[in-house]
Write a structure and sequence with these properties.
The complex is a heterodimer.
Chain A lengths: L6 H34 L16 H28 L10 E4 L5 H8 L6 E8 L2 E5 L7 E2 L3 E4 L4 E7 L4 E3 L8 E3 L4 E6 L4 E6 L12 E7 L1 H14 L9 H10 L41 H9 L1 H4 L12 H11 L4
Helix pairs in contact in A: 1-2, 5-8, 6-8
Chain B lengths: L16 H6 L4 H30 L9 H36 L8 H23 L23 H30 L12 H32 L11 H34 L6 H14 L15 H13 L1 H15 L8 H24 L1 H7 L3 H31 L5 H27 L16 H27 L40 H7 L5
The chains are: A alpha+beta, B mainly alpha.
Chain lengths: ~325, ~550
Amino acid sequence: MVPPVTRDAQLINDLYNVILIFAIITFVLVEGLLIYSVVKFRRRRADEMPHQIHGSRELELAWTIIPAIVIAVIFGLSVDTMSRMTARGTLSNPVAHVHAINDVEARRRVERAQPVDLVIEVIGRQWIWQYKYPGGDGVTTNEELVVPANKNVRLDMTAADVIHAWWMPEFGPMIYVNPGELSYVWFNVPPGDYIGQCNVYCGVAHARMISRVKALPQAEYDEWYAKQAAASSAATRPGDPQAGMQVFMNGSCIACHYIEGSKAQGRVAPRELTRFASYPTIAQLDGFENNAENLAKWLRDPQSIKPGTAMPNLNLKAQEIADLVAYLQTLK
Amino acid sequence: MASISIPIPLRDRARTGLLGWLATVDHKKIGVMYMVMAFSFFVIAGLLALLIRLQLAAPNLQVVDPQTYNQIFTMHGTVMIFLFTIPMLVGGFGNYLLPLMIGARDVAFPRLNAFSFWITLGAGLVMFGGFIFGARSDAAWTAYVPYSNKTFSPTIGMDIWLLGLILLGIGSTLGAVNFLVTLYSMRAPGMTAWRIPMFGWAMATTAGMVLLATPVLTAALIMLVADRNFNTQFFTTNRVQLWQHMFWFYSHPAVYIMILPAMGIISEVIPVFARKPLFGLRAVVISTILIGLLGFTTWVHHMFVSGVDPTIERFFMFTTMVIAVPTGVKMFNWLATLWGGSLNLKTPLLMCLGFLATFVIGGISGVMQGSIPIDQYVHNSYWVVAHFHYVLFGGSVFGIFAGLYFWVPKITGRMFDEKLGKLHFWTTMIGFNVTFFPMHFLGLLGMPRRIATYDAGRGWETGNLIATIGAFLLAISVLIFIINCIKLRNGEPAGNDPWEGNTLEWSTTSPPPEYNFREIPTVESDRPLFDARMRVPSN
């Protein structure tokens, strides 16, 4: 397993290692008996006739009862591990489902399960995770979830389209994120960069639905957050094609878009972007001329310009939009 | 048993040539057609698997585009399960062997039997035709709602996939009725319950499971077709787990539908090649039936992370683990059958040893992932891919090959080339483990299943490369088997009983006449032919 960084992941890891001991004993026993039999009891003479043993009640009872005891032990260990994992509501689990977003009672019950320092709303959609921070500063991210390290974080997750699953292997347990339902994840992690990805098949770019978590010490987190809050309102420097390419290739754009010779191999969007800047219009929308101003508008909210387009509102920040515009205009 | 005393004209009534096959209601010809069909689908789905492995051999490969990749793994899973393993074991071996083993002239409803086959083949052609001509589903074999509904899978490929499965369900259900009636009412005189060969018990349990489980899947499929085409709201107004419940209520028992007949096969082969009776026949029979019953109580373990009430989950964790006990009993009974025997290490027995050696790994990993905390980590990862291939390849496919090497001499009257058989076994054994063992580690390293590609730097490169190499070794092993099949034409004549068999099919000619037995034999033990050879008095 990947090295655990949370208590829950550690508990799973420990349980795995204990059960692995039983597994290895069983494996060695069976394979040993098998190999021994093949060597010892191979036919040596064509006419040899072994003892005709039809069974043995004692032996059969033994290999019913002993495995049953082993199974009972494994069951007990599993239940014990579950009870020691991060508490929630009446049962223990570091992840939880509430089956209806508007079931306020159930939500309260789960949300009271343990104190948290930060709650982030997460929406899974084909093929990105979108993170919305509390506080009304309009801070959202798509490519990376930034959290303060060593703090109790809770994610309140739902899906916008099909079923997705949230799995950060280093954090331990995964959970499905269902449309129309709420999934909760609690974690508390040391500083570092973590990576995971969607774990329920969700369509053509399922493999590109990556989730990244960056845990920063509180001071650095505060600094990052302040910068985000400022950047979400206005760009701080002119658009930079290099930075724009970074946003494009590391973000969710490549799930749907195709640019020859790059990592972007998505085939959802109807038109390649390889020579985007040479197209007369954006999104094949009649009269929507391909220029920097329109492109920025489009990236800010595609749905308001061409309702029903497959391109979602990615909650891009002003700086990201400026950089993306600069980058896309280099594609000739 | 009045029907069996009716004299049957002892001339070969069989039509010859193509019409003889197309119009046949003979259980043996139908069985052979099932086998040929299933094996062809096995080769096709195997080639699809090679494409999957090529794509994943290294990070960011583009052998096929992601859309095609998703269609390929969907088809690979669907074909391997519904058009290879189940028709091969139930339709192929079940049809060919059941009447012969119980001393009957045919199944109870021969025309219904033919109908089952043709509807199965038709369903296969519908699904595969759709695939060839571009109407492809990409919703994986599990077709989870809402991904499989009209909004997210708008193409006709999904409908064709659903229709194909509905037809397969009908074929499979009718076949199950047929087998149950045959086993109940057409056994030779003297064949009491405890004298039914183990394969017969396995088929009875399997048929019972098919009969109870398949209608639930068929219902779900029809509901989804209606949702997609007639604006019903079965799966849109209910919670997303509804489909999963209905799907897994069939598809978990389906695992046992795929493994119990294979267990039945090795329970026939091992005693013959060890020259010993099956150790604890009654315990094996009872375990089989228990597995069949418990198999219906575990389906929620596929849903431990998808949002099921945690209290319910614990119940299903318990039942999932408990099923290991009867499975373990069978495992140890097979080992005890080998113990102290006189092991004739021919290819059929080698394949059984392959079954035991690899299936145990799948059984162990099954208990491990039955534990909810561990499942919360390995669910949907490559660990699970490793697990079910150890069960379904390590179990079912080794069982199928054991059965083919054992009974094809009966079916064709010719022996396989033993040297090629051994080569086939070893390439399969090595290729299989090289392909699938590394997948455990890939899963533990966080690699999800069903991803079309992956970035470098997550520690997945080596494992994937090794798995791809193993897959090509496996492909070579299948090629060796095909060569061996072609060489059958010049194979040595098998005679009635090349292996010193135990059961009634070895008492008739190879291949058996259309009416199977000149005289319906009278059965006096669970190993009638062994006893006849030993000339021991009946017990």
